[in-house]
Amino acid sequence: MMMSMSIFTDEFSDDNCLQDSANAQRVRDVLIDSVPDHNTQEPALQVDKPPPPPTVIPKKRGQPSKKELPKPMSITYYLVLFSESEMKKTVKQWKSNNTFLELKQDFEWHTVKVQFLMKIMQTLQLRLIDFSNYDFMWNIPCQQSSQMQLQTDNDYKFLIAHALKMKEPAVNVKIEARVAKKGKKNDSGTEHDMSDNSSNSDSDTSRDAKCVKKKSKV
């Protein structure tokens, strides 16, 4: 009985040792496979980076953006008109016709001249007039107090440069009609006094009549 037990136990122990060694070898193999190899580098994953946010430039106060262009300002012209009949009187007897006109700052000089002439014709009730028949003078209170002429394009540009310095541009314009010489028609289309020429013509005709009478008597 003892012999069989010893033999059984010996056989059992040998089998166990073999199994244990095999299991140990498997465990070693698993552990070796599970340990990462630091010498070999795995390819890094490529991740798309988001685009950077757009740069925003802060806008200064009072400055318009590039897309929004400033609108042209309107200039108010206060017109003081003196007709030709008033200019024939003494200065104390002058009576003006006052009106106003609003024009954009980007208007060309030839356009402004046409607008002035149309306003003169409307106010003084004239038919056809010419710009050269009037003297235009302008001034701006607190900017250009002295009277300046307004006849050329350079004069107009000088006026605009001073008017735009104001928050609400306004200009005083004095318009005086030039007195035409005798024998010429004025703006209204009527002829001036021709008394000198008419008297001379009457005297000539009277002399001719006297000569004809004398011849008839002879």
Describe the protein's architecture and organization.
- By secondary structure, this protein is of the alpha+beta class.
- The chain is 40% helix and 17% strand.
- The chain is built from five helices and five strands; from the N terminus they run H-E-H-E-H-E-E-H-E-H.
- A five-stranded mixed β-sheet has the order 2-1-5-3-4.
Radius of gyration: 55 Å
Structural class of the secondary structure composition?
alpha+beta
Elements, N to C (H/E): HEHEHEEHEH
End-to-end gap: 210 Å
Shape: rod-shaped
Mean pLDDT: 75
Runs in which pLDDT lies below 50 for 5 or more consecutive residues are 1-12, 190-218
Continuous helix count: 5
Mind summarizing the main beta sheet? 5 strands, mixed
| Assembly of the depicted chains | single chain
Strands ordered across the widest β-sheet: 2-1-5-3-4
Q: What is the β-strand count?
A: 5
Keywords:
218 residues; alpha+beta; five-stranded mixed sheet; 5 strands
Topology, pairings included?
Elements lengths: L1 H33 L39 E9 L1 H4 L9 E8 L4 H16 L9 E7 L3 E6 L3 H11 L6 E8 L17 H23 L1
Parallel strand pairs: 1-5
Antiparallel strand pairs: 1-2, 3-4, 3-5
What's this model, at a glance?
With 218 residues, the chain is α+β, with helices and mostly antiparallel strands.
